[in-house]
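We treat protein structure as text, and this decision shapes the records that our systems exchange. Such a record has a labelled line for the sequence and another for the backbone structure tokens. The record that follows is passed on verbatim for readers who wish to inspect the format:
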Amino acid sequence: MTDAADLAARVREGDLRLHELDDHADADTAAEARRLLVESETDATLDAVGNYGFPAERAESNIENMLGAVQIPMGVAGPVSVNGGTGGDTASGDGEGVYLPLATTEGALLASVNRGCSVLSAAGGANARIIKSGMTRAPVFRVEDVVEAEALVSWVRDNVDALIEAAESTTSHGELLDVTPYVVGNSVYLRFRYDTKDAMGMNMATIATEAACDVIEAETDAELVALSGNLCTDKKPAAINAVEGRGRSVTADVTIPREIVEDRLHTTPEAIAELNTRKNLVGSAKAGSLGFNAHVANVVAAMFLATGQDEAQVVEGANAITTAEARGGVSESGDSEARRTSSGGDLYLSVSLASLEVGTVGGGTKLPTQAEGLEILGVRGGGDPPGSNADALAEYIAVGALAGELSLLSALASRHLSSAHAELGR
């Protein structure tokens, strides 16, 4: 059996490279050798990093040069009752709701989301619906001029079936839904959109699009410059994702009776609605923000980490708009305090996430701890029908975001935010 210390010495001597260790030992021994090497060349002690709870070979498709694992505390919020449209529906089940797994190092986040979940359930649960779905990849082609650009656009529109055949020949699961052209001078961008079922589908879309691009180059004068022309748009803030969507576009909402707002959140529907307008809508607009919300990224990131999603895609996942309104009973008085405390109206709150890119198969969802996070939600693996598990996951994340928005807005409206953090010692 190869000794980790010997392997580390061979790397130091230049006989082996870090990435070659897996060719000379099992995955755990290779990881140990890398820890020994890094410890010898830095001031770090990697005992905690090396104390992971699954065979290193389980992560071979997820990481290179593995030396251990970072452990992030994971908790649950809820249970919360969800009226989902495509599988994320606890209202039609046992009625007890679902626990939301969140992994984070930010103290008070779980407590805040948990409070929001409790209020959502007290109000009868939250609604969640997938509005649009499709993973995109947008290659960019070079043409001679706008005349040739128009010819390419026309060819694409007339030959969609040929592109579908080429793209779908690379996958047994993905379906090419449409191809949308965009022209900028002599650059032509083609935004391919796919139904990737329960997979997040970025790799699937990339491979399928490459096959379609081969057909375009063979049949037209266009020349492929890059398989991704940044009009997809992946892992970057982009207005096109806010407008057209990417992955799952999902909305969650709830109507909370006034007495629950007052008794449980210690504020009023009017105060929350005004705060949301001035903070999330006007304040975000003044800042030039793409997201019009309080902290949707917090919940998206925590649930991404807990369920094995691509953490870089939190950029798009936090592209969300929060709306709030007091329904009925709004005072006509010109007095600001009277407007904030008038009786009779309930609180309507919604969160719309335009580009939530999630999956329940492939990628990080195969790792043991992340798979357990999906099991908590009951959505591990492929769904029946295909795509239903990923849809349900998107709905659960949206409801978690709704709970987080409700709790933070309420804390701000009641001026309890700082006292809550102080009480929890955060």
About this structure: The two ends are 48 Å apart (CA to CA). The mean pLDDT is 92.
